[in-house]
Amino acid sequence: MHVSESEYKVRLFENNYTRKICKSCKTPFWTKDKERDNCADIPCSDYDFLDMNISDLKLSVREARNLFLNFFKKHGHEVIPPKPVLARWRDDLYLTIASIVDFQPHVTSGLVPPPANPLVVSQPCIRLEDVDNVGVTFGRHLTTFEMGGHHAFNYPDKFVYWKDETVEYAKEFFTQELKIPEELLNFKESWWEGGGNAGPSFEVTVGGLELATLVFMQYEIRDGQYVPLKLKIVDTGYGIERIAWFTQKTPTSFHAIYGNMVYTFFKKLGQPPVNEEMLKVAAKLAGRIDTDHPETIKLHRKEVAKAVGEKYEEVDLELTRAARVFQVLDHTKTIAMMLADGLVPSSSGEGYLGRLLIRRALRTIKMLGSDTRLSELVLEQINYWAEDFPQLLKNKEYILDVIENEEEKFRETVNRASSIASSLVRKQEITTEDLIQLYDSQGIPPEFVAEELKKKGKEVQIPFNFYALVAKKHQTSPIKGDKEKARLPKDAVEFASKLPPTRKLYYEDQYLRTFEGKVVGVYKNYLVADRTVFYPEGGGQLGDKGVIIIGEEKYNVVDTQKVGDVVVHVLDREPKVSPGDSIKGEIDWQRRYRLMRHHTATHVVLAAAKKLLGDHVWQAGAEKSPEKARLDITHYKMLTPEEVKKLEDLANFVVNDRRPVKPIEMNRTEAEMKFGVSIYEGGVPNKATIRLLEIKDWDVESCGGTHVSNTSEIGAIKVINVEKIQDGVIRLEYVAGDMVSDYARKVEEKVNKVSEILGVDQSQLELRLQRFVEEKRRTEELLSGYRRKYVEYLLQNSSKEVFNGVQMMVLKGVDDQEVTKEVMRRFTLEPSKVAVNFYSINGRYVVEVATSNDLKVDGILENLRKLGGKGGGKGTYCNVSFVKLNESEVIDAIKQGVKRST
User: Fold this and answer.
1) What is the pTM of this model?
2) For 275-286, how does the pLDDT look when each residue is reduced to its tens digit (9 = 90+)?
3) Given Cys at both, which of 332, 621, 667, 835 links 824, Cβ 3.0 to 4.6 Å?
4) Which domains occur in the chain, in start order?
5) H helices then E strands: how many in the chain?
6) Exposed (0-12), middle (13-18) or buried (19+): which is 833, by Cβ within 10 Å?
7) Annotated binding-site positions for Zn(2+)
8) How far is residue 361's CA from residue 343's CA, in Å, rounded to a whole number?
9) Which residues participate in the annotated binding site?
10) pLDDT digits (tens, 9 = 90+) for 674-691
């Protein structure tokens, strides 16, 4: 987009600043330095700040964060707490990639007010698109970092501040707080886009390092067009870690961020320290690395070798080793942050991204030749950052347990690498897409594939940015909250969308069973009234059924759906009615009440699972029917029977404790600040005011369903099934209320049936089953012994003949598959052997043929099919059935079909 020069003229620049064009990148920038001819950003400048002696400040990350927050607090900004690194308030994004994400889309669109205005936050962020560059650029790229953001939201009727003040704040912070001479500050003109918004921006650079970006968000990107926003938003991003690095001037940013932990990691990974002078030279010149062109890495290392007077090969080896240690250092913090905020590694969604980083860290540890446990390194991060991020310590047990679990899975994956990689040997060309598909489906790092294929004489090219490509493919969500679409035909949706909102009596009194109202619209068998007690399907709860009475006619309501705020009654037939006519309606109360019990029980069970298993538990899906309810939760391993029992006990304690259940309507910003983003377990409603359901001292969650008013009404909760439905997701099925007795009745009937089959009274059932199992075990041992003897007998006494150097054994009437399988296996262990078995089953005649490894059954199978047989097989075994059978013809066909393997 072409941006007018006037967008970048601010009050500060009137004070002896000059607009220049960078001689290298041709980008305009503003500076007080009359001599400067470049924008002081990489690659136009090296990291000259490492040699600047401008103050005695040596800020840690914590000190840099506090300095930033306190500066803006002094200037009237309210400090707000950061959000989790998992963007669970967003439908379209898995990870929090910037501080403005905290306010998108509901605050930035003007739907709700911000929690404060102006405000300041230091938001931990995670970005994986540069994951392959971590360590290689000595700190320019990180997967996790803190973005210091001060934000002002300017409404048409309320101006806070805009460009002039934002740039002046930056100047004051850097000159007064960091003691940077103003002549060293550069404001580089730029343009920013993200999260569907855009606007002009300044990049604040000093000595090659970009310290902050000042964005003036004023457009929404809609269908490729820039549409002016109602709000004008100041969106700034100060690099907290970069500020620490700038003041400390350590060899790399990792030294500034992690301090002595850098040396701890080198030691734990079995690596001697890298020469710090070499690192500092490498870091200073790192701006010359263009990560889009991997060949610049080699050029950079040649320049380092020349500068330090070492051989290129030695420098390359040392910097590669250092980069790998830095990668592990960076990744372990990111992994800890993700898990602490509730990520569960899995094969999809945010869990996929977490597993990708875990496996990349494990792969890097392996490439360093270390056997250090990843959990040991993650524990170092937990202890180091516990004061800054208390959730790390709170969830330490969960984090370490997950890491141990993932390490075990990774070992299993690596053990499979050889056989899986072998399947690619015959491919003429192995593409990047092949490697990504193999990583996606099997979790095998491309380096291991390349290593295995190299043993077989095949070279594989791995793209430098492989993990970034994989992360990019999985980093956005396919609209996580797209669950409320009406299940109505398109024409019915169009009809309903033109009608006014329906008065929802089921929210005014969830115990109402009947209503009287007026018809607003009717189309085919779809009827809309001005009010209704019928709850429309949503939030995992089925729509109500019942009857609607129009005059003397009674119509069955077979379903209830909604389109926006319009409730649509789906009738069993077209009604004779017109808009304005009076109607009466009555829901199927028994069905509704069961749904209410199951829905409230779902909230109870979810909160119980969180309390029992940990805060990482998140609702991955739910459904409530009159018969039962199901809840899918994120959890990294199957629940034990003891855990299921504890879950039931916790849930039923709340039921018996008679906790009040009440709906609350609240501004979403207030709700988030008060209860956190866990209110969005069931989805993210796109409304300024959201409806919460509170179970006293137990759970608060956004929900639009119908519920009982006290947990005692649930009656009881019984878990009836627990299963792992996919990696990282456990399904719980349970019943509540009178459906518990219904379930108990069915179990009782099964017990009675078993008692009847075994011919004992229920009181003797357990004892009889124990005896039965023991008798079965003894019988199986006895049968196994007889089978062994029978196998030996058949091997010794079955008919055998030799033809064309091949020995054939023929069995007849052996229909014990265990015996047949073992006889054939034993007989065909030696070369040039064929075993045949004839038997009959269900009126058909079956021929089984097995051969030794040097023979094939292809020709045999072809000949048997010519005789009218039906069946299949390959390699050394086939099975063919006949309606009529001539054994001598079959034997001849087998002899003629025997072929040697090639």
Assistant:
1) 0.85
2) 999 999 999 999
3) 835
4) 5-249 (3.30.930.10), 276-474 (no CATH), 490-500+511-587 (2.40.30.130), 593-739 (3.30.980.10), 799-900 (3.10.310.40)
5) 25, 32
6) buried
7) 599, 603, 703, 707
8) 17
9) 599, 603, 703, 707
10) 999 999 988 888 889 999
